[in-house]
Amino acid sequence: MLGRSVIEVANLRKAYGSTVAVDDASFEVREGEIFGLIGPNGAGKTTTMECVEGIRRPDGGRITVLGLEPYKSPYELQHRIGVQLQQAQLQKRIKVWEAVDLWSSLYPRPLDGDELLEQLGLADKRGAWFMTLSGGQKQRLFIALALINDPEVVFLDELTTGLDPQARRKIWSLVTGIRDRGKTVFLTTHLMEEAERLCDRVAIIEHGRVIEIDAPTALVEQHCPERSVVFTADASPPAGLDSIEGIESVSVEGFTYRLEGRGEDFVTRVIHHLSASDIHVRDLRTVLPTLEDVFLKLTGHGIRD
Amino acid sequence: MLKGLLKLTWVEIKIFVREPMGVIGTVGIPVVLFLVLGKTLGKKMADSGAPPTVLSSGLAIFASIFIAVGSVLSLVAIISIYREGGILKRLRATPLRPQIILSAHVIVKLIFTAVTIGLFILAGRRYFPLDLEGSAFSFGAALLITTISIMAIGFVIASAVPTARFAQPIGSVILYPMLVVSGLFFPIELLPTAWQTAANLLPLTHAVSLLKGIWSGGAWSDHLVELGALTLNFVICIALSAKIFRWE
Ligand SMILES: Nc1ncnc2c1ncn2[C@@H]1O[C@H](COP(=O)(O)OP(=O)(O)O)[C@@H](O)[C@H]1O
Ligand SMILES: [Mg+2]
User: Fold this and answer.
1) Which of A10, A190, A208, B4 has the fewest beta carbons closer than 10 A?
2) Rg of the Cα trace of chain A?
3) What is the pTM of this model?
4) pLDDT tens, residue by residue, B213-225
5) Host H or E run for residue A240
6) Of the candidates A78, A91, A98, which has its C-beta nearest B93's C-beta?
7) Whole domain around residue A242: which residue ranges?
8) For the domain that residue A250 is a member of, what is the CATH number?
9) Do A117 and A148 share a domain, yes or no?
10) Which residue among A14, A47, A209 is best mutated to probe the pocket of ligand 1, counting the most ligand atoms within 8 A of its Cβ?
11) At what angle are helices B2-18 and B98-124 packed, to 10 degrees?
């Protein structure tokens, strides 16, 4: 899984007038992974991504994508990457097949457009005008356009923002499908659940600075080691809960117990203890911290604040 | 890349035709107006015994230049709309060169300008016998040069006007007054001297003069000043818009 790095960004800087959008950002994306740039709106995700795609000129720093410098060789780069922009539209009255056909004509060895539309569930929309598509269908068309040249790296900027949960799930499985075909995916999102589901590694960006880079589980492990187990037991209160290794607090509400502790093995220990004490457990669930909690911990505020 | 240009041009033609208001506004209404005008005016003039050709030569140039300016305004509008909607940006994140994207739009507008003028000539022939003394080919070439030169002004307007809503009105406010003093409606000799000097600096004045000259059979060599002015206008405007053009 640890492939060579296909994107290298070092000390990237970009300001719009007096607004510093990206401030000294550095990270790398490796071959075959889904890498996520995550952070709240206005953090500088889109700006960073567009600099990497070669459509925005950085003020400082060094970027290489597949060995090319994006702003210096934009056309050469465009042949080898696929791009979905955060805020893009097509001509209102362009038909789905016409867009795919136009894009196919721009590359030397395009994939089969109809097959791609089929895979993305757009086959029955071939003849529909762009303006008549739903949000999810538009995004799937943009994915089709990003894949038409069989690119080595695919860029997806806030792919599911504004979509309903069902459409979102469909897109998620498409994205993991892209990686499974051996492509590298570089995406941005402000949805922590999305990042957790999709990304092999994430970089957390805030106010234009990258503050952490790692696998989501590793970040949770490192920054939020607390674990909770909540269970409901029949009548008799189990004894010795306080003695479970790593436990920090026990709270009781009726027959429902909430155990908080830390450590990778905490949940296993609780389960062992419960089965050893031979009590009847009606219900048991674990509450694990998420990337959202990591973000809160690192920045002192929630992602949606 | 040529393949991309042809594909994009063809797609844009289809899209233009799909927009009913666009076709009616730029092709339909002018032709219908012209027909109505021809029916009433042409008949009156025939009754009064005035030689119809007096009006018709002016009318052909008048119509041509109005259609050309109209096309330029719709070019300005479409570029602003494409920019505002992020369509230009999306097209740019492909191997398409910017010049190709803009050229496709220019070609589409040139084609529809030609179609509209062609329809005009067909529709008007019955009422206004054309007194074209030069060759139709020369006039077509003069019109092409003129239109391309005005389109360059359109690029500057499209580059400078930030929002799509104001693009067309601002374009009209710039281009139509230029037209008023261009010698199209009355000879510029009727203007005060200072105004004449100003009018002679405007590209549309040279456009009108070139079209009139070629229409009445003048030689190209007699119009080197106009050709020079239109070329200069083109070069300056393209250089300026290349500097200030924004893709988003
Ligand atoms: N074209 C632009 N002109 C001026 N400011 C911009 C522009 N694009 C983004 N910004 C500003 O730069 C910052 C980062 O924006 P962006 O990169 O879009 O962040 P994100 O994608 O994480 O939401 C924000 O403060 C935003 O307002
Ligand atoms: Mg963004």
Assistant:
1) A10
2) 23
3) 0.86
4) 998 888 999 999 9
5) none
6) A78
7) 225-288
8) 3.30.70.980
9) yes
10) A47
11) 50
